[in-house]
Amino acid sequence: MKNDILPNWEWDRVIPAPGPMAIDFEERVDFRRLHRYRLGRTQKALAESDLGGNIMF
């Protein structure tokens, strides 16, 4: 769960995507990773609160 909410970006390095035309080198949207990230943040916030649950849409 901890690794899902830490993006591990190194902002001092150049982003390895050269531009919108070089599709072979660009990383597309990883929806599974995005889902795990959002779910991890929600679970962490829920654990730190006094709520029993929440409805998200």
Strand content: under 5%
Uncertain stretches: none
The number of strands is: 0
Q: Classify the secondary structure makeup into a structural class.
A: mainly alpha
Main β sheet profile: none
**What is the share of helical residues?**
25-40%
How many distinct helices? Answer: 2
Span between termini: 21 Å
The H-and-E topology, N to C, reads as: HH
Mean pLDDT, nearest integer?
76
Shape: elongated
Radius of gyration: 16 Å
Give a summary of the structure in a few sentences:
This protein has 57 residues and is mainly α.
Describe this structure in words.
- The protein has 57 residues and is mainly alpha-helical.
- It has a domain at 1-8 and 27-52.
- The chain is 39% helix and 0% strand.
- The chain contains 2 helices and no strands.
Q: What's the SSE blueprint?
A:
Layout: H1 2-5, H2 31-48
Using brief descriptors, characterize the structure shown.
39% helix, 57 residues, mainly alpha
